[in-house]
């Protein structure tokens, strides 16, 4: 048998907030790399996730959801980051939710058209579709909106059709040798993922708009005798937000820190000593300079 040529290339995973882009990336990688929650705008950075297979390497880039809110510097940064991921990429993977098409889905598709790149569309959350007969007309509508290379109905949480989707993606990539060692999962430093795991708890535990007023900075990250010592700062915009995050007798913050630490221990594969403080930085999400200082840089 003639061996298949090795393929390697980049795939930008784009779509409106909350369609399951990050859940899909984790599922394809077979472990949690990026954070997810039921809230929109959980992902705030373009994050590389590397999938190495015997027949090649897929360099996925998870992105923030493309959305219509341009009301503060952070929201504008999120859209800019998602669109920038479409520049110089080999392929776009547009993720949509089965049965739904909104103005924000249209914005995401417009960015793909503007970048003039080939695209596969993953129609996610098919497990949620009560009436399966609606899938066919939905796929038909999608195929009329754009000349996608493939339309693939999937369920990121259940794993349905993901192997098929992955092979279609790989076949669409150029021939080439892997660029990263086979055991490498991302190009971000460990402290980045430590901050993300604290932010994941903020997104998951606190209601309404509160998580959007928070960001996490890792002030100290050290290895000492086989364990990590991590100091994290949660930045908020107002004193009232600080009080809610800390909770009565510090119970809310304590629970948040315990869960963050457990997920860090699983991620890093070693014991973690984590300390978390909440601090005030007025209007950090509206101020370009503060944003850049907190790691939101183009
Ligand atoms: N029912 C169902 N829920 C899903 C599926 N994929 C993702 N979700 C949920 O959708 C929400 C948003 O997921 P996330 O990956 O953070 O979306 P993102 O903003 O596009 O990255 C989370 O609550 C996920 O558990 C799926 O295939 N089926
Ligand atoms: Mg995400």
Automatic annotation (TrEMBL):
Binding site for GTP: 15-22, 62-66, 124-127
Record domain Era-type G: where: 7-175
Membrane topology, as annotated: Peripheral membrane protein
Name of the protein: GTPase Era
UniProt-annotated stretches for the region G5: 154-156
Protein family per UniProt: Belongs to the TRAFAC class TrmE-Era-EngA-EngB-Septin-like GTPase superfamily. Era GTPase family.
Entry superkingdom: Bacteria
Biological process, per Gene Ontology: ribosomal small subunit assembly
HAMAP family: GTPase_Era
Any one Gene Ontology cellular component term annotated for this protein: plasma membrane
Subunit note: Monomer.
Domain KH type-2: start-end pairs: 198-282
Annotated segments matching region G1: 15-22
A GO MF label: ribosomal small subunit binding
Region (G2): 41-45
InterPro entries noted in UniProt: G_ERA_dom, GTP-bd, GTPase_Era-like, KH_dom-like_a/b, KH_dom_type_2, KH_sf_prok-type, P-loop_NTPase, Small_GTP-bd
Region feature (G3): 62-65
Localization of this protein: Cytoplasm; Cell membrane
Alphabetical keyword list: Cell membrane, Cytoplasm, GTP-binding, Membrane, Nucleotide-binding, Ribosome biogenesis, RNA-binding, rRNA-binding
Lineage summary: Bacteria, Pseudomonadati, Pseudomonadota, Gammaproteobacteria, Chromatiales
Keyword rRNA-binding: yes
Region of interest called G4, as start-end residue ranges on this chain: 124-127
Purpose: An essential GTPase that binds both GDP and GTP, with rapid nucleotide exchange. Plays a role in 16S rRNA processing and 30S ribosomal subunit biogenesis and possibly also in cell cycle regulation and energy metabolism.
């Amino acid at each position: 048998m003639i061996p298949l040529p090795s393929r390697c290339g980049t795939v930008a995973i784009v779509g409106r907030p909350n369609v399951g882009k990050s859940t899909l990336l984790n599922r394809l990688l077979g472990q949690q790399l990026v954070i997810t929650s039921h809230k929109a705008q959980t992902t705030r950075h373009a994050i590389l996730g590397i999938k190495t297979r015997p027949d090649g390497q897929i360099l996925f880039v998870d992105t923030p959801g493309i959305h219509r809110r341009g009301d503060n510097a952070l929201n504008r940064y999120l859209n800019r980051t998602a669109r920038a991921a479409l520049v110089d990429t080999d392929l776009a993977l547009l993720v949509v939710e089965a049965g739904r098409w909104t103005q924000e889905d249209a914005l995401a598709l417009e960015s793909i058209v503007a970048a003039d790149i080939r695209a596969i569309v993953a129609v996610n959350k098919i497990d949620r579709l009560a009436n399966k007969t609606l899938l066919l007309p939905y796929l038909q509508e999608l195929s009329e909106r754009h000349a996608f290379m493939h339309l693939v109905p999937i369920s990121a949480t259940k794993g349905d059709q993901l192997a098929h989707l992955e092979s279609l993606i790989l076949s669409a990539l150029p021939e080439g040798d892997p660029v990263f060692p086979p055991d490498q999962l991302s190009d971000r430093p460990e402290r980045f993922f430590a901050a993300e795991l604290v932010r994941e708890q903020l997104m998951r535990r606190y209601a309404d708009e509160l998580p959007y007023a928070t960001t996490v900075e890792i002030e100290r990250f050290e290895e000492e005798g086989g364990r990590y010592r991590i100091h994290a700062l949660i930045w908020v915009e107002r004193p009232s937000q600080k009080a809610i995050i800390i909770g009565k007798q510090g119970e809310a913050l304590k629970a948040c820190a315990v869960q963050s630490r457990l997920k860090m221990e699983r991620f890093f594969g070693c014991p973690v000593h984590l300390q978390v403080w909440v601090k005030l930085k007025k209007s950090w999400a509206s101020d370009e300079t503060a944003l850049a200082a907190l790691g939101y840089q183009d």
